[in-house]
Amino acid sequence: MSNYAEFYRRSIEERDVFWAEEARRIDWHRPPDVICDYSNPPFARWFPGGQTNLCHNAVDRHLAQRAGQNALIWVSTETDQERVYSFAELHAEVQRMAAVLQSLGVQKGDRVLIYMPMIPEAAFAMLACVRIGAIHSVVFGGFASGALASRIEDAEPRVIVSADAGSRGGKAIAYKPLLDEAIAQSTHKPESVLLVDRGLAPLPLVEGRDRLWAPLREQHLHAQVPCVWVDATHPSYTLYTSGTTGKPKGVQRDTGGYAFALAASMEYIYCGKPGETYFSTSDIGWVVGHSYIIYGPLIAGMATIMYEGLPIRPDGGIWWSLVEKYKVTVMFSAPTAIRVLKKQDPALLKKYDLSSLRALFLAGEPLDEPTAQWISEGLGKPIIDNYWQTETGWPILAICKGVDEAAPKFGSPGKPVYGYNVKLLDDQTGAELTGANQKGVVAIEGPLPPGCMQTVWRDDARFVNTYWKSVPGRMVYSTFDWGIRDEDGYYFILGRTDDVINVAGHRLGTREIEESIAGHPNVAEVAVVGVADALKGQVAMAFAVLKDASCLGDTQAELRLEGEIMKLVDRDLGAVARPARVRFVTVLPKTRSGKVLRRAIQAVCESRDTGDLTTMDDPAALQQIRDLVQTKNS
Ligand code: ATP
Ligand code: MG
Fold it and tell me: Ligand 1 centre from 411 Cα, in Å?
């Protein structure tokens, strides 16, 4: 048995011993009584009775050894600013923020909603909350008032922390009007709103409610706010899923399990070492931002880069210049970002000294082979896919580098990560599929490992009903993703269960059709959805973005291209998978985190209501599809 197979086996079969050891990676104020209380499945309580604090483990714990070392490196190409905080400086700033929050009445268990651009004060606010036992709820700064209002309603924050404005592509985007509008829409009203004034947009204050950060910070310059020890099961935060498949779900995370699960992942998956620099290009509004901009790197004693700006401004080399400057060893991004870079000059990948960098990790959506190949050749570094969800907080499938000698396989995020009892289930019968190369729903047998979601915030029933199925004697969590496992134990994700279409009795994954179409040399990106069809039940419809769009509008050329693409699908998958139409657009509708909103495309194609679109990025993208569909019908 390989090292990893044995390591993995122990994590499942000797679960409590395994995690008791891993839990030593963090400081405990009081050791736990029990390792895992799974007496009320599917609710798992990890380390009940143990007391710890997330901020202590991310900041205070490092002061003895690395007070002067870099902790938070903030770079904004939006405002041309760069600030570096050592662990000691971060400690001071977090205490100031904690003191200010306390002065506004925030206590243990209260919620604080953080609606912020990527500025250091956002990190201070997150860390300050968990320092005093308050529960943060970060809402992505790119969301408008509707999305914000529903999250205010759900989290019922005592205080909201925000700023005058964010900035995108050098253009200020005022937050305050959106925030005021959202508070007006919500039946819950925060007692106070704490505002960082960046001098980017007007900041009218509501008397008695709104407070400015800078003068309050001055008042608490020397604040000393001790960490509040909380139970390991005390919620540290709530965070909403991306809303790709429906109304976002409020994921509730614990404290203790999360802290050491992240600490372990830094060693076994990302191989980041104390004193090094970690660079995740995500946003604090997403789970990757929580786990791998803020908590994971800091808990591991690493410096973390927080980047405000576009990946292509001032040019497509900006990220690599930061790798050189701060000697980044571990980098984390998303395929969607790499596809943006792919449209830039590839010479930019070679312009900087990247010798410090060991690997680039990508997650969040399927990593297609052309993108992986392009970036891997360009950087000359390992590109490592990993698969997980907002719900889990850290990877489900990965190559566990610290323990696994296996190499990544293109197209596969790897094998089940220790602690995750991953199964493939037949979607009809729920039976476990044990053979190689069988397609099923990726599921996790309970209990979920430490650090995963505890429940849906204030909605235990939704947690149970949405995610869990009972199979005799046990409960399994569904990821709602299709997968297969090859004979070597590597998993391949084949798309979401609701992205499956049924053409004349044949069940087809839209992902497979997309992969085939993406193989056409002129296709940059493509989305395939199933559309109701009187004859066949459903047919596939494809919407493609072209690399060279000069033929757009030339009907003959478009038809020729459509024919070529259909031939390609015929050859790869067979005529049954051939899309009924391939239409061309300049951009696909996506969530703000870069995921293609197939359900919205499908709704438009079927002339249905598009549902919750609060997380959509660019409404014009969906409009293009609407226009195409309407011209076809008229
Ligand atoms: P919602 O749950 O609200 O519909 P979402 O599922 O997009 O939104 P996230 O938690 O941000 O919300 O995304 C997790 C999903 O992203 C996974 O379930 C999977 O579909 C996809 N995903 C993440 N990483 C990968 C990966 N490496 N390969 C393929 N798919 C991935
Ligand atoms: Mg999801």
Answer: 16
Residue-level pLDDT at 634: 44
Q: Give me the mean pLDDT over the 565-580 stretch.
A: 89
For helices 15-22 and 3-13, give the axis angle rounded to 10 degrees: 110
Least confident of 242-246, 260-264, 492-496: 242-246
In this predicted structure, the answer to whether residue 569 has a pLDDT above a threshold of 50 is: yes
Proximal ligand: closest to the CA of 390: 1
DSSP states of 516-561:
HHHTSTTEEEEEEEEEEETTTEEEEEEEEEESSGGGTT-HHHHHHH
Which SS3 state, helix, strand or coil, does residue 21 take?
A: helix
Kindly give the distance from the C-alpha atom of residue 389 to the centroid of ligand 1, in angstroms, as a whole number. 5
User: How does DSSP classify residue 346?
Assistant: G
From 394, 481, 482, 599, give the residue whose CB has the most ligand 1 atoms within 8 Å, as the site to mutate: 481
Q: Whose CA is nearest to atom 23 of ligand 1?
A: 364
Cα separation, 423 vs 408, in Å, equals 20
Q: Work out the mean pLDDT of the chain and round it to a whole number.
A: 94
Instruction: Give 601 Cα–ligand 2 centroid separation in angstroms.
Output: 18
In 3D space, the residue among 186, 174, 180, 173 whose CA is nearest the CA of residue 206 turns out to be 180
Average pLDDT over residues 534-541: 88
138 neighbors 282 (Cβ within 8 angstroms): no
CB 485 within 8 A of CB 424: yes
For residue 357, pLDDT beyond 90? yes
Q: Atom 31 of ligand 1 has which residue's CA nearest to it?
A: 365
- Of 224-233, 427-436, 506-515, the poorest mean pLDDT is in 506-515
For residues 169-191, average pLDDT: 96
Q: Whose CA is nearest to atom 13 of ligand 1?
A: 389
Could you tell me if 419 and 449 are in contact, meaning their C-beta atoms sit under 8 angstroms apart? yes
Q: Which H/E stretch holds residue 368?
A: none
Q: Half-sphere exposure of 410 toward its Cβ, with a 13 Å CA cutoff? A: 9
Amino acid at 515: E
Dihedral Cα 581, 585, 591, 592, nearest 10 deg: 170
Q: Are strands 537-546 and 523-533 parallel, antiparallel or unpaired?
A: antiparallel
CB 164 within 8 A of CB 131: no
Q: How far is the C-alpha of 235 from the C-alpha of 75, rounded, in Å?
A: 30
Pick from 454, 512, 434, 97: nearest CA to 251: 454
Q: Is 420 in the pocket of ligand 1 (CB under 6 A)?
A: no
Q: Quote the tokens at residue 323.
A: 């790798």
CA distance 37 to 138: 29
pLDDT at site 626: 94
Element (H, E) at 9: helix 3-13
Average pLDDT over residues 380-408: 94
Residues 6+ apart with CB under 8 A from 112: 101, 106, 125, 129, 134, 135, 136, 137, 157, 158, 159, 160, 161
Question: What is the mean pLDDT of the segment spanning 250-276?
Answer: 98
Find the helix or strand (DSSP H, E) in which 622 lies: helix 619-633
Nearest to residue 122, comparing CAs of 99, 90, 147?
90
Is the peptide bond preceding residue 579 cis, with omega within 30 degrees of 0?
A: no
Q: How far is CA 220 from the centre of its chain?
A: 34
Residue whose Cα lies nearest atom 27 of ligand 1: it is 387
Q: What separation in angstroms does the CA of 138 have from each of 111, 141, 370?
A: 10, 9, 34
> Which residue puts its alpha carbon closest to atom 12 of ligand 1?
242
